[in-house]
Amino acid sequence: MWPGVRSTSDAGRRGVLRILALAATLLLAPPALAGEEWRQPLLWRVDRAGAAPAWLLGTVHLPLSALGDPPPELRRALAEARVVITEIPLDGDAQADMLLRALQPGGRTLADDLPAALWNRLERVLARRGLPAATFARLRPWAMLGQVAMLDWMREAATSPALDQWVWNEAVAG
Fold it and tell me: In the chain, what are the helix, strand and coil shares in percent, each to the nearest 5?
């Protein structure tokens, strides 16, 4: 378990699974990547009296190759930042730990946790993209939700860092 995260009862788990199922349904249609939105990233500057500005960037975990070169505003914000805080650590050890936490315990599979209709739909969606469901079967529902959101960019994600990983890499290098 993550620190501060408690396990839920079966009823609570079913409620979480319903939320995940709804979110997965909404995510099965990928958002359009219009160039105009990327030229104006989800980047906010917070000015405070007597303090250096703070920056907030909304990343969408998409591969950088799907978005194109980071806009100059983002590069400037990173150059000005004295501290960069990300949603989760993105170093190798943290990523390996996250992968282990994403796997079901024992012999459980997604088919054990998802309603049959949702599992069947997920299998069809994966098959249409040439991805065998068995590749994802050991993931926990929350981890699969993240994969569903990335289905249309999986091939690119294999060769291009996600935007949040790029930000992490830039911060570590800078």
Answer: 55, 5, 40
